[in-house]
Task: structure prediction
Amino acid sequence: MKLKHLSTAMILATLPATGVFAAALDRSGQSVSAFLQPGNYFEAGISVLDPTVKGQSTAATGSQNISDMGEDYQFYNAALKLQLTDYLSFGLIYDQPFGADAEYHDSTLFTNTAGNTKVEVDTQNISMLFGVQPIKNVNLYAGGVYQTVKGGVQLRGAGYGGATAINTFGGYNADIPEDSAAGWLVGAAYQIPEIALKASVTYRSEIKHKVNIDESSVGVGPIAAILNNATGSTDITTPQSVNLDLQTGIMANTVAFANVRWVNWKDFAIRPYAFGIASNIAGANPAINKPNGFDLVAYTDDQWSVNAGVGRKLSEQWAGNVSVGWDSGAGNPITTLGPTEGYWNLGVGVQFSPAANYFISGGVKYFWLGDAKAQSGAQFNTDSYLADFTDNHAIAYGMKIGYRF
Result:
């Protein structure tokens, strides 16, 4: 590949903050673009998100303002790709694909003297890829994925309690200890370096975890007693996904690019063991009318997202890009633990290459977050909800370094 083509392609290796605030728990976007870089290559990056997520409780729940419940967070990624021979390649990719970080502070719907409603979920992935290039322009790849997951949920406030049996869920705690499990990925890429054309499609499997969640309750009554004493394992399955990546040269030193991502959130749900027993009992209450119980967290729709833009080499050392993104969300109404429905975003990025074989890049994205109606688990798949979250936004920052050797 000629240097001018290499430099142009590197523009797309440096798009920071690509996912960051996607539907449901999606964060990193799970890109394999580093593995598709030519030759031997290493990169490392960090993304930071500063969200503002405010709301208003419904008249039925006692109208009150809900201050910002979105917590700042950061996550990291790194990748190593080795071209072992003309026909074989190997890669390692580290990312933090799924997560959540939120806490309510001053609404009686979601806080009380026992604390605040909050959630924190962290995952880590290490993907090991092996690629075969049977002919010049084709790359077939597959590999295994090692994943860890951990987190915690605390429910507080009138939104999870009142005059019915559901009230005692307002004291519920769930501590998810770190668990590991394995999955796999497979994909194919086609490229014509002379015109900076590259297309790839990557499928990632779901990954099934079986976790002994530590559950307890600071509430009172028979439901709280169940939450405080039952023990058993819980299945947590992170979703399957498909990424489609496209880029092509459109004029000298300029490329257009797009990413389309699908994530199977519709089939995702978490129902901890004791929570499930208690929800079956509470669901029998005619006011709730869920005889089969309900989930702690669940989503009604799959996520679709699109990010597209243009990157341009400005000089031998400088390049830049602009992009626009859209995310469908994972359903509305949606869980109180993540009350946004998709987004639109606008991003800009810049890359500085002191030498031909390495670069430093940075970027920023502004997100217009979709309005959402927040539900508790007992309301899932009903028309009732606790609060409206509207006119919210987020700002994401990213930085990355890349080195070719």
Q: What stands out?
A: The chain has one domain: 3-404. Residues 3-404 form a domain with the Porin fold (CATH 2.40.160.60).
